Amino acid sequence: MAGNVHELRPKLPESEKITINLGFVDLGQIDLLVREGFYSNRTDFIRTAIRNQLDRHDEVVKKTVARHQLDLGLRHYTRSDLEQVRAAGEVLHIQVLGLAVIAADVSPDLAREAIASIHVLGALSAAPAVKAALADRIR
To answer: What burial class does residue 8 get, using C-beta atoms within 10 Å of its C-beta: 0-12 exposed, 13-18 middle, 19+ buried?
Structure first.
């Protein structure tokens, strides 16, 4: 039976928790809108407000992503990806708007040899040792 067991890739979170401070009047107005049924809860209101602002600035975001040559969305870097870069004598300049994931089996040494810089607008998921090894390259 042990031969049939497969290690599953850890599930990545679909969102990141943030904390904000609001004035009591703003919070009360949100609670009023929730109570009146416009939103299911405070989080629903805040997500809707954020999405509305992102929609409002959509054209600027698109132009900036193109200008800075950012990968948009989820970008996963496997050990094989990094080994190929290293074997070719090249280095990566990772630029992601969204989530950049460096696989759990990537060693700190391989990461330092294959990654020259990391610029992530969003979140970077990597082993703590890999993040520490790349600390001087993350902006």
So the answer is: exposed
Rounded CA separation 81/77 (Å):
6
Q: How many angstroms separate the Cα of 100 from the Cα of each of 15, 40, 132?
A: 13, 31, 16
pTM of the model: 0.71
* pLDDT at 76 exceeding the cut of 80: yes
- Domain boundary, last residue among 6, 32, 56: 56
> What percent of the chain shows pLDDT beyond 70?
91
The answer to whether position 4 is within a domain reads: no
Q: Is 134 helix (H, G, I), strand (E, B) or coil?
A: coil
Lookup: tokens for 4: 């049939």
Residue 13 lies in a domain: no
